[in-house]
Specification:
Number of helices: 0
Order of helices and strands: EEEEEEEEEEE
Structural class: mainly beta
Strand content: over 45%
Largest sheet: 7 strands, mixed
Radius of gyration: 13 Å
Shape: globular
Low-confidence stretches: none
Mean pLDDT: 95
Distance between the termini: 40 Å
Number of strands: 11
C-alpha cells in the first residue's frame, strides 16, 4: 500500500515562510511526477507546482518567484519552500504522486494559514 504523508503546515504571518514535506512510503519505487496542490474554502483544488523525476518544474502564476518545489528521489520525498506568503495562500495543501503508469496517489493534506 502506498501512502503520501505531508508535514510542515501551520500558521504564519504575511511575508513569512514555510517548508512543506511529503514523504512516500509503501511499495512504490518512484513517481514520475510529484506535485503540490491546494484547496481554499469554497474553491476548487488547484495546481501549485509540479516536478518530474528529472527535475523539470512548473508553477502556478500566482506562486512564481515565491515558491520552490524540489524532490529527493532517494528519500521519495517532495518539498515545497514557500516564501513571501500572502493571506490568499491560505489553503489545505495536498501532495500528489503520479507513477509512470499513470496511477495517482494523494496525501491527506496539511493546513497552511497566513494571517496576522
Amino acid at each position: 500500500q502506498v501512502q503520501l504523508v505531508e508535514s510542515g503546515g501551520g500558521l504564519v504571518q504575511p511575508g513569512g515562510s514555510l517548508r512543506l514535506s511529503c514523504a512516500a512510503s509503501g511499495s512504490i519505487f518512484s513517481f514520475s511526477i510529484m506535485g503540490w496542490y491546494r484547496q481554499a474554502p469554497e474553491k476548487q483544488r488547484e495546481l501549485v507546482a509540479i516536478i518530474t523525476d528529472i527535475g523539470t518544474t512548473n508553477y502556478a502564476d500566482s506562486v512564481k518567484g515565491r515558491f520552490t518545489i524540489s524532490r529527493d528521489n532517494t528519500k521519495k520525498t517532495v518539498y515545497l519552500q514557500m516564501n513571501s506568503l500572502k493571506p490568499e495562500d491560505t489553503a489545505v495543501y495536498y501532495c500528489r504522486g503520479i507513477t509512470s503508469r499513470g496511477v495517482t496517489y494523494w496525501g491527506q493534506g496539511t493546513q497552511v494559514t497566513v494571517s496576522s
